[in-house]
Amino acid sequence: MKLKDLAAKPQLIKIAIDREDIIEKYGEAVEFWMYDRQSIEQFIKLSSVSYDNPTEVINAVKNIILNEDGSVIINDDETLPPDILMAAVNEVISTLGKS
Q: pTM (2 decimals)?
């Protein structure tokens, strides 16, 4: 197989946070979107993160957690409840690990 055959434009994929505690608290699964492929710059940023530092991890993935139109959810003015934020970070890391 040629490496070129694996290259493709990133596509938005829906991620559902469907843990029992989240559904119980919010009444349903919580969804966000992310691209199925990340830029090399994003991977370098993620690889340099200290996973012992939650703030550093959140800053590294906040541009990956998106609305269905591809816009960033977490910005200077808006953030997520802590339980959803940590669950979304875990989903991002888990999804990237499967790629």
A: 0.87
Asked if residue 38 lies in contact with residue 24, where contact means CB atoms within 8 angstroms, the answer is: no
Tens of pLDDT, residues 13-24: 999 999 999 999
DSSP string covering the chain, please?
Answer: --GGGG-----EEEEEE--HHHHHHHSS-EEEEEESS--HHHHHHHHT--TT-HHHHHHHHTTT-B-TTS-BS--SS----HHHHHHHHHHHHHHHHH-
Q: What is the pLDDT of residue 58?
A: 86
CB 88 within 8 A of CB 82: no
Sign, Cα dihedral of 78, 30, 92, 15: negative
Residue 99 has a pLDDT of 58
